[in-house]
Amino acid sequence: MAKTSSIIKNNKRAALAKQFAAKRAALKAKTKDASIPMDERFAAQLKLAELPRNSAKVRVRNRCEVSGRPRGFYRKLKMSRIALRQLGNLGQIPGLVKSSW
């Protein structure tokens, strides 16, 4: 199990990223638009820099929903490989069968 503080910190980052997503996307589009004058693009870049760092989507870490483990994460299942194996062995994941050959 991951530290509770790490999980909470990551959840706060995810909430901030969701909150500022539209504003961030608009400013980024403005900075990349070549038809806008250079000084306006620069002003948009400065406004983008003023936003909280944790509001960037890239700072959110994918964590297992079961254990909070940050590594060995399967995006499709939102679960780490270890939690997947444990729940699969207990028969709690439909369609997952232990393989043998």
From TrEMBL:
Keyword Ribonucleoprotein: yes
GO terms, biological process: translation
Pfam families named in the record: Ribosomal_S14
GO function terms (MF aspect): rRNA binding; structural constituent of ribosome
Recorded coiled-coil stretches: none
One Gene Ontology cellular component: cytoplasm
UniProt keyword list: Ribonucleoprotein, Ribosomal protein, RNA-binding, rRNA-binding
NCBIfam families in alphabetical order: PRK08881.1 (NF006477)
Assembly information from the UniProt record: Part of the 30S ribosomal subunit. Contacts proteins S3 and S10.
Family: Belongs to the universal ribosomal protein uS14 family.
HAMAP family: Ribosomal_uS14_1
Described purpose of this protein according to its UniProt entry: Binds 16S rRNA, required for the assembly of 30S particles and may also be responsible for determining the conformation of the 16S rRNA at the A site.
UniProt protein name: Small ribosomal subunit protein uS14
Organism: Devosia ginsengisoli
Gene that this sequence comes from: rpsN
